[in-house]
Inverse folding.
């Protein structure tokens, strides 16, 4: 039976947000403010007006680049009418015992998922499939019981990428352009414990490598430049094609590590039965004694329990430039899969994000050599990458539905699977096919919620 626990990444209801500490009185609101006479004279003079004009020009230029471009790069695109969505930043206790930071969007509710016939929501065309062989079955859970070192040495050829598959997927939609409800996750492994980056990281654009997936389908991602998240996730707008894109990439993967199986749709409740409420109001599972508890937005119960697929994927525009991927009422993009990288499937809670991606691109992962893959040291660079992914997924996974090896602790099994995924990503640098077909700046670990 699926649990009704809610992910800490779920949107936050506006009613739980704190109100301003000081509310101005009626007299204060209607009191005219005045500046000193000398200041008014200086500002009104010709030199003062020139200085103020220059200041306003710089200020306008500065505010126009506070976010990455919707395509996730540093293109000088001005978005003058963006209304930034409110974010509620709160800390949660991570699986490793530290404090991870979550910036969740503030929303009244999420729309119910009206899933009908998905057969015409996307069209898939295989562009390249040379030497890409898919195993008929998923990896046996017995493999995950072995120590990672012996597993990788024994099954090294499985994690070696020798071929890629390029899929051209057209996703159809009937919505107009709207802002994507984004959230941000930062792991507890960082020493600064802040979601906001330093000045040296202000121009970093890696966190937006997967933005074209959203923007090409009329969902504008406004990612602040001063944010330094490990994971960027999106809750809405929901498109029916999102599920089918995730399921298609899962079916086309070379091999799968599955900890969840698809379940049949829940039967319609009879009229005399009360059943479960359609919307759940759930408080954060990690309340703080110093701060008020955050009430999550109204979350519709899915018609059946949801899963999530985690995989290494690359994206490319349809014809050379990203603007060709955005067509009226449809997006068309290339997705690149590697035959040496597994797809991981886990069961997820209510409120788990629709789409998410790790901000560490394949270009960054390739900076780790094979000799730096250290499974025994969790404080190594490799161990830190795996820990970030595990902490994020721990907030999403429904452990009551987790189907791992019966004699292996579930979290240990997921950690081992993530280590395999990261190892495959690092080793993919040695593949000639990957170097030719993949854009290392537009590739990384992405996640889709699926039925």
């Amino acid at each position: 039976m699926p649990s009704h626990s809610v992910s800490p990444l779920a949107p936050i209801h506006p009613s739980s947000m704190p109100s301003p500490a000081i509310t101005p009185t009626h007299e204060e609101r209607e009191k005219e403010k005045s500046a000193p006479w000398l200041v008014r004279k200086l500002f009104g003079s010709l030199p003062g007006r020139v200085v103020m004009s220059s200041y306003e020009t710089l200020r306008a230029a500065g505010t126009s680049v506070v976010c990455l471009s919707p395509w996730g790069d540093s293109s000088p695109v001005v978005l003058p009418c963006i209304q930034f969505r409110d974010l509620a930043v709160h800390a949660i206790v991570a699986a490793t015992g530290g404090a991870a930071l979550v910036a969740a969007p503030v929303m009244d509710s999420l729309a119910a998922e009206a899933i009908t016939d998905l057969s015409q929501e996307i069209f898939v065309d295989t562009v390249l499939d040379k030497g890409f062989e898919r195993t008929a079955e998923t990896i046996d859970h017995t493999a995950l019981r072995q120590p990672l070192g012996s597993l990788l040495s024994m099954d090294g050829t499985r994690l070696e990428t020798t071929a890629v598959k390029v899929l051209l997927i057209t996703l159809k939609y009937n919505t107009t352009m709207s802002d994507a409800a984004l959230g941000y996750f930062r792991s507890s492994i960082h020493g600064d414990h802040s979601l906001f980056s330093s000045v040296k990281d202000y121009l970093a654009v890696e966190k937006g490598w997967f933005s074209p997936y959203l923007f090409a389908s009329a969902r504008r991602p406004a990612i602040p430049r001063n944010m330094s998240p490990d994971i960027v996730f999106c809750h809405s707008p929901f498109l029916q094609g999102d599920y089918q894109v995730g399921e298609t990439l899962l079916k086309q993967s070379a091999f799968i590590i599955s900890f969840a199986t698809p379940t049949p749709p829940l039967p319609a409740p009879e009229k005399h039965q009360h059943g479960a409420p359609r919307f759940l109001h759930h408080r954060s599972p990690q309340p703080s004694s110093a701060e008020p508890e955050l009430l999550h937005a109204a979350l519709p119960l899915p018609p059946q329990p949801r899963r999530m697929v985690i995989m290494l994927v690359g994206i490319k525009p349809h014809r050379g430039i990203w603007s060709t991927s955005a067509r009226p009422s449809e997006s068309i993009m290339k997705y690149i899969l590697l035959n040496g990288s597994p797809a991981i499937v886990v069961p997820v809670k209510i409120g788990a994000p629709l789409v998410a991606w790790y901000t560490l691109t394949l270009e960054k992962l390739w900076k780790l050599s094979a000799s730096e893959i250290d499974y025994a040291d969790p404080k190594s660079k490799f161990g830190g990458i795996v820990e970030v992914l595990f902490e994020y997924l721990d907030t999403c996974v429904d452990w009551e539905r987790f189907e791992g090896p019966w004699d292996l602790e579930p979290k240990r099994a997921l950690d081992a699977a993530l280590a395999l995924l990261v190892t495959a990503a690092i080793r993919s640098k040695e593949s000639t096919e990957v170097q030719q077909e993949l854009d290392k700046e537009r590739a990384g670990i992405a996640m889709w919620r699926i039925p």
In short: The chain has one domain: 64-265+278-450. The mean pLDDT is 76. The chain has ten helices and 17 strands.
